[in-house]
Design a protein that fits this description.
Helix content is 45%, strand content 24%. The protein has 299 residues and is an alpha+beta fold. The protein folds into two domains: 113 residues, Beta-Lactamase (2-Layer Sandwich); 154 residues, Alpha-Beta Plaits (2-Layer Sandwich), CATH 3.30.70.270. It has a five-stranded antiparallel beta sheet. The termini are far apart.
């Protein structure tokens, strides 16, 4: 028929695989030369078997979306992406129902191979994910002590400033602890700096295991550490510090044996600055050292 020839000529001009199927039988009634070059001549085969090796129509078949209640073309055009396991390729499918010259309603599909594009997109997604991961890693490194993994001094200063602001604004309470490993220099001198570093790492691990998730532990410098304890009054922080002191004193550190720590604790008082708060805790720590170490004192 002349109409068939016109359709076929039109579809053969397009440089992408095109196939036409009967919407009732799913049989391929026409495939253009580009389609045949990729899949072979599949005329009179069902589309689901010829293209995908399925025994029944695809569960995501778009025919119901392309026809009206009387199974005639509704004028809608759909564009979807689909992976063909049979030839391991990605295709962008543009589909539309139309009336074939012999009166049947058919669906025609233009299949554009986008495999290379998908590979580029996947690489781009992977690159973004890798960049996001590296950014998080850099942010973590910038905020944490390189050796022990706890917060560094800069992060502690920011957190303490924020906690003071929060407490003053909402009338809450928080407490503050400065602690120091006793006679740490002698550990380095006796066992070497590598053992000293291992003690610092193990010491922090021990503290983290015995702190609440809301408590912020950080390395202030050398063997000195700070703990910020939100929503904690003086009695509670004294009990917490005594628990930590006991855990440390009872622990056998690899390569160094028994190690103790001294603690200075204080509670935020209205009007406190970061400096005044830290001075009270530091004075209490100094007194604990002076009185014999391995103790908790309040300031």
């Amino acid at each position: 028929m002349l109409e068939n020839t016109l359709f076929e000529t039109h579809f053969n001009i397009i440089p992408f695989p095109i196939y036409v199927i009967d919407i009732n039988s799913y049989e391929i009634v026409f495939c253009n030369s580009s389609f045949k070059a990729v899949f072979g001549d599949r005329t009179d085969n069902t589309c689901y078997e010829a293209l995908y090796g399925h025994e029944a129509p695809c569960i995501d078949c778009r025919i119901p979306q392309l026809v009206d209640d009387k199974r005639g073309p509704n004028g809608l055009s759909l564009t979807v992406e689909k992976f063909n396991e049979r030839n391991d390729r990605w295709y962008q499918l543009q589909e539309k129902a139309l009336s074939w010259p012999d009166g049947r309603t058919v669906k025609h599909t233009i299949a554009v191979d986008i495999t290379e594009l998908k590979e580029v997109q996947n690489k781009l997604v992977e690159a973004h994910a890798s960049l996001a991961l590296k950014t998080r890693q850099l942010e973590h490194l910038a905020a944490h002590d390189n050796l022990t993994g706890v917060l560094n001094r800069l992060s502690l200063e920011k957190a303490l400033h924020a906690e003071i602001d929060r407490t003053e604004r909402y009338g809450r309470e928080f407490s503050f602890v400065i602690l120091d490993i006793d006679r740490f220099k002698s550990i380095n001198d006796t066992f070497g700096h590598q053992v000293g570093d291992e003690v610092l790492v193990e010491f922090c691990r021990l503290l983290v295991e015995n702190l609440r998730q809301s408590d912020l532990l950080g390395r202030w410098g050398g063997e000195e550490f700070v703990i910020i304890c939100p929503e904690t009054d003086l009695d509670a922080v004294l009990k917490m510090a005594e628990k930590l002191r006991s855990r440390v004193a009872d622990h056998a550190f690899d390569g160094a044996g028994r190690v103790t720590a001294s603690f200075g604790v204080t509670q935020f008082i209205a009007g406190d600055s970061q400096r005044s708060l830290m001075k009270r805790a530091d004075d209490a720590l100094y007194l604990a050292k002076k009185k014999g170490r391995n103790m908790v004192l309040e300031g």
